[in-house]
């Protein structure tokens, strides 16, 4: 609590009176702590690839100076680390841009079917590399929502990319668009390993990744679902996660 004491203005010679106010600042404290945790996490995530880049540069300048085979291998790893840093900076910028316009409601009319087709096409190279078949299920009639087209593309890119990466072993990802009486919904369904229930409520936290194995073997920043949540909040849409271990996962966006 923040406590303030102020004297009351009273006619002369009256007994002095004071007003004491208590203000609950636990929410402000919480936001402050979240902000500093976020900066600490972001710095740590950037520092790791940076340290590795420095190590490789030192090796290339020293012991590996004349070893062309090693040089090629190290340069390849350095390129991957640099790509990782760019992905991270892009995601951090997306988050901060979204925070800046959090109070502005998006106002375009967006047809969802072309958005989903666009995302499927732009992820085709990744899906091919992972040998996953992304199948779209679109109704005959158009389905529109009020929103921001680029942001919705980002939402479905993140969800479908995750389904391909983490549900790779299921081989297929189904994306279904449905019109509802008072809105619309899109489900992204994979037949991968699923997510244990204790992780589900934390998935949209910044930098949250389910397992160390995920963070080692699958490219990602841990910011994808945090970005999804921010965008959906602006759109007054909900993210519903259903997952069964060993069966697969379904992320549904309900507008
Ligand atoms: P990342 O950049 O790690 O993909 P996200 O915020 O997009 O970050 O996802 C957070 C974590 O949620 C992932 O690291 C992964 O462990 C888990 N996850 C997301 N989507 C799926 C999915 N379809 N199946 C299983 N796990 C998933």
From TrEMBL:
Can you state which reaction this protein catalyses?
ATP + protein L-histidine = ADP + protein N-phospho-L-histidine
Name the Enzyme Commission number(s) assigned to this protein.
2.7.13.3
Span of domain Histidine kinase: 41-255
Parent-protein start and end of this portion = 163 to 417 of 417
Q: Does the keyword Ion transport apply?
A: no
Q: Where in the cell is it found?
A: Cell membrane
Q: What is the enzyme's class at the highest EC level?
A: transferase
Q: What GO annotations for molecular function exist for this entry?
A: protein histidine kinase activity
- The name this protein carries in UniProt is histidine kinase
- Provide this UniProt record's keywords sorted from A to Z: ATP-binding, Cell membrane, Kinase, Membrane, Nucleotide-binding, Phosphoprotein, Transferase, Transmembrane, Transmembrane helix, Transport, Two-component regulatory system
């Amino acid at each position: 609590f923040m406590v303030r004491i102020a004297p009351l203005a009273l006619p002369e010679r009256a007994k002095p009176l004071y007003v004491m106010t208590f203000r609950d600042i636990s929410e402000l404290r919480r936001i402050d702590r979240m902000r500093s945790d976020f900066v600490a996490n972001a710095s740590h995530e950037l520092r790791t690839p940076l340290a590795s880049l420095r190590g490789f540069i030192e090796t290339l300048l020293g012991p590996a100076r004349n070893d062309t085979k090693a040089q090629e291998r190290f340069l390849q790893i350095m390129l991957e680390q640099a790509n990782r840093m760019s992905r991270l900076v892009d995601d951090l910028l997306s988050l901060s841009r979204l925070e800046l316009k959090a109070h502005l409601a998006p106002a375009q009319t967006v047809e969802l079917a072309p958005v989903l087709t666009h995302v499927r096409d732009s992820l085709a190279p990744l899906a091919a590399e992972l040998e996953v078949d992304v199948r779209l299920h679109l109704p005959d009639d158009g389905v529109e929502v009020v929103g921001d087209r680029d942001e919705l593309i980002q939402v479905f890119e993140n969800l479908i990319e995750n389904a391909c990466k983490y549900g790779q072993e299921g081989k297929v990802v189904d994306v279904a668009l449905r019109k509802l009486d008072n809105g619309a919904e899109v489900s992204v369904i994979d037949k991968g390993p699923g997510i244990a229930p204790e992780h589900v409520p934390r998935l949209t936290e910044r930098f949250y990744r389910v397992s160390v194995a995920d963070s080692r073997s699958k490219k990602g920043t841990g910011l994808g679902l945090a970005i999804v949540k921010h965008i959906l909040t602006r759109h007054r849409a909900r993210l519903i996660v259903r997952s069964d271990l060993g069966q697969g996962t379904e992320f549904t966006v309900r507008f």
